[in-house]
Amino acid sequence: MAMMTLQDGGKMAYVDRGCGRPLLFLHGWGTGSAFFHKQLQYLESDFRVIAPDFRGHGASSPLPEDGDIHTLARDLGAFLDHLDLQDVIVCGWSMGSMVLWDFLATVGCDRISQYVVVDMTPKISNDKGWGLGLLYPARRYSDIRGGEEGRSNWDRTCESFLSKLAPKGSDPVVAEWELKEARRCDPASMFRLWNSLVSEDYREEVSSLGIPALLIYGEQSQLYGPETSAWLDAHLPQSSKIAFKRSGHAPHLDEAERFNSEIVAFANREGLAKAPCDASFGHAS
C-alpha cells in the first residue's frame, strides 16, 4: 500500500492500481479498503482503481482526539488533491457515503462526476419524523472506548456488528476474515466516529446534489430496509436504484460479479449530465 502524510501529520494508507478513469472506493465504519478486494482485482484492467483506509482503519493512523466524520471528509479532499484526480466515479459503502456527502456539501463536486451509494441512509438515527435509519438502535456501539479496556471491548463489538453485514447463514471462513480485518481498527477512533455518525443528518444535502447517482442495496440487509433507498431515489435529482436479492449490507462482497458489472455499466452510461453543484450552504460541524 502507498502512504500519504496529511497536513496534521496523520497517515492515510491507500491502494492505487491500474490506469484509466479513476474509480474511488470508500469503505464503511469498522472495515477498510480490503473489503473491496473483489472490485480492485476485477476492475483494475479497465479503470484506475483507488481505495484508501480512512484514519482509524486498516493501515492508516488513528484519528486525532477531536476527529469525527468531518475530519474524514477533509482527509478525502486532501487525498483527491494529492492524487490530482479528475472525472472521478466514487463508490461509497455505508459510512463511505456519509464521508462523500459531507465532502460534497462543504467542498463541492468539481472533481467528481458520478457516485454510487451502497446500502446507506442520509440519517442513521430514527426519531418521530424519520424512520429510515438503522433497523436497530443507533446508539448500540456508543460505549466503545480507548486503551486496553477499549481494545477488548472493540474485539467483542466486531463480532456483533459484522454479524449484521452479510445475510444470515453466510460463509464462516469469510466471516473470520472480516473479523480479522475489522480488529485492525483503532477502538478510540471507532468510538469518536460512531458518535459522530449517529448525530449527522444529510437529507438536505443529498437533495441538492446534481451528480448522477446509482443506489445499490441488498434486499436481505439487516441494517436498512428497501424504503431507505427508495427515499434517496425520490429525493436525489439524478438517480437510479438496483436491488440485490441475495445480498445483505455488502452487495459488493455477497454478489461481487454482478456488483462489478453494474459499476461498469454505470460508468459507461450515456446521457448522464452533471448539474452545477452548490456547496455554499455547507454542513454543520
TrEMBL record:
Record keywords: Hydrolase
The keyword Hydrolase belongs to this UniProt entry's keyword annotation: yes
Domain named AB hydrolase-1: residues: 22-255
Molecular functions (GO terms): hydrolase activity
Lineage: superkingdom: Bacteria
Record's protein name: Alpha/beta fold hydrolase
Organism whose genome encodes this protein: Kordiimonas lipolytica
